[in-house]
Amino acid sequence: MIFLVAAFLLLGFLAGTAAHIPLPATFAAAAAIGAWLLVFAVRERRHHRQGS
Predict the structure, then answer these.
(1) Alpha-carbon distance 52 to 47, whole Å?
(2) pLDDT exceeds 70 at position 4
(3) Tell me: the pLDDT tens digits for 26-52?
């Protein structure tokens, strides 16, 4: 029983929130983070190309 509790605790630390929320919510959060990172990368690239 202690082994099972330790395994779930370790899984919680390793997988984070994704282990505790439904799969569609995980994919939605991943898509939102990916979109934000894409917008950030485009803005940074545009900023550096302008030379300001």
Answers:
(1) 7
(2) yes
(3) 789 889 989 999 999 999 999 888 865
Say if CB 26 and CB 18 are below 8 A apart. Answer: yes
> 38 with 32: CB under 8 angstroms?
no
By the 8 A CB rule, do 21 and 14 touch? Answer: no
Tell me how many degrees the CA angle 40-42-43 measures, rounded to the nearest 5.
65
The beta strands (E) that lie in 1-52 are given as: none
Q: What b-and-e string marks burial along 28-50, b requiring 16 or more CB atoms within 10 Å of the CB?
A: eeeeeeeeeeeeeeeeeeeeeee
What is the model's pLDDT at position 5?
75
